[in-house]
Design a protein that fits this description.
The protein has two domains: 2-109, 3-Layer(aba) Sandwich (Cobalt-precorrin-4 Transmethylase, domain 1), CATH 3.40.1010; 114-253, Methyltransferase, Cobalt-precorrin-4 Transmethylase, Domain 2, CATH 3.30.950.10. 37% of the residues lie in helices and 19% in strands. The chain has helices spanning 17-25, 43-50, 59-63, 67-75, 90-101, 114-122, 138-141, 148-159, 180-191, 214-217, 237-247; strands spanning 2-6, 28-31, 55-56, 78-82, 106-109, 133-135, 164-168, 170-171, 176-177, 195-200, 208-213, 227-231. The radius of gyration is 20 Å and the shape is elongated. The mean pLDDT is 95.
């Protein structure tokens, strides 16, 4: 059996009760932290809290050579851990399909996601979000300005009155996390007068939610990562009230549909 377990959003305690039980009873545990990681816990913290050894795999060890994981799942109960919810990344789906093709039973134990947390913390209704996008560092995409993939997603969502969740680039090899003020600065030339909402450290004891013009957000600091940026579309009156009360949005930016 190969069970995919999401670790949640922040530290060793963010896992669900079901996930903790599965991990406790497993014969072997593997993890990857190249797609994302827990900012509030190290691998050693996870091992101590869950009283288990965890083998961390790099990208090649999951995508190109997962044989150790598959063999462990063939002979016993193996767990594959990821930050956030599992199965969000296609690399995890590929690993699950490889297991199924070898006759290995698989199972998924879900956990909170950045997307659900962004909706919950801001008060923006989850069914009013359109296509999400990722804003990369300039050096990562090798071109000037914001990539068309980002602006197209924002523009298409705005045309439909939908909110846009902008994931901010993470380069774990360099321990480099894009901050929301940097993201806002990149977007300010084209969207500076639009309402933006920052979500920082979702799932932690001290999350921050702040709403203002994107140009104004570029001049603020939001503390430690991880950060997200939301560009709202049309606002329901409850959403507008939530952004005013929970995120300090200026009244003049809260136009209700």
């Amino acid at each position: 059996m190969l069970t995919f377990v999401g670790l949640g959003l922040y530290d060793e305690r963010s896992i669900t009760v079901e996930g903790r039980e599965v991990l406790r009873d497993a014969d072997s545990a593997f993890a990857e932290f190249y797609t994302s990681k827990l900012l509030g816990a190290s691998v050693e913290d996870l091992e101590a809290y869950h009283d288990t050894d965890i083998e961390v795999r790099n990208r090649a060890g999951v995508e190109q050579d997962p044989e150790d994981i598959l063999r462990a799942a063939e002979s016993g109960e193996a767990v594959f851990l990821t930050a956030g919810d599992t199965m969000i990344s296609t690399t995890h789906v590929d690993l699950r399909l490889r297991a199924e093709q070898r006759g290995i039973d698989t199972r998924v134990v879900h956990a909170p996601t950045a997307e659900s947390a962004a909706s919950g913390l801001t008060g923006l209704q989850n069914y009013r979000f359109g296509k999400a996008t990722t804003l990369p560092f300039d050096y990562a995409h090798g071109a000037d300005g914001v990539p068309a993939s980002v602006t197209d997603a924002i523009d298409e969502n705005r045309e439909r009155g939908l909110h846009t969740l902008v994931y901010l680039d993470i380069k774990l090899r360099n321990d480099d996390y894009m901050t929301a003020d940097h993201a806002a600065d990149l977007l300010a030339e084209e969207y500076g007068d639009l309402l933006g909402v920052v979500v920082a450290r979702a799932g932690s004891p001290d999350p921050v939610v702040a709403a203002d013009r994107i140009s104004a957000l570029a001049d603020r600091e939001f503390g430690d990562p991880l950060h997200l940026l939301v560009i709202p579309g049309d606002l329901h009156h409850i959403e507008a009230d939530a952004l005013g009360e929970l995120a300090g949005a200026p009244d003049g930016l809260l136009e209700v549909e």
